[in-house]
Amino acid sequence: MEGQQKLRPCLVPLVIRLNFSD
Questions:
Q1: Whole-angstrom Cα distance, residue 10 to residue 21?
Q2: Could you name the domain of life of the organism this protein comes from (predicted)?
Q3: CA distances from residue 4 to 13, 19, 20, 21 in whole angstroms, order as listed
Q4: What is the pLDDT of residue 11?
Q5: Mean pLDDT for the stretch of residues 8-22
Q6: Is the confidence at residue 4, as pLDDT, over 70?
Q7: 1-22 b/e (C-beta count within 10 Å ≥ 16 → b)
Q8: What is the pLDDT of residue 9?
């Protein structure tokens, strides 16, 4: 389950960037 924990923090900045792009 270490993969999911690494994906979470990686998706956080991704979503924030998408929100800022809007």
A1: 17
A2: Eukaryota
A3: 15, 22, 24, 25
A4: 87
A5: 86
A6: yes
A7: eeeeeeeeeeeeeeeeeeeeee
A8: 83
Gap between the Cα atoms of 22 and 7, Å rounded: 23
Q: Say what the pLDDT of residue 17 is.
A: 92
> Which residue's entry shows tokens 């809007």?
22
CA–CA dist 9, 1 (Å, integer): 14
Q: Which two tokens stand for residue 7?
A: 């994906």
Structure tokens at 5: 């924990």
Q: What confidence score (pLDDT) does residue 22 get?
A: 66
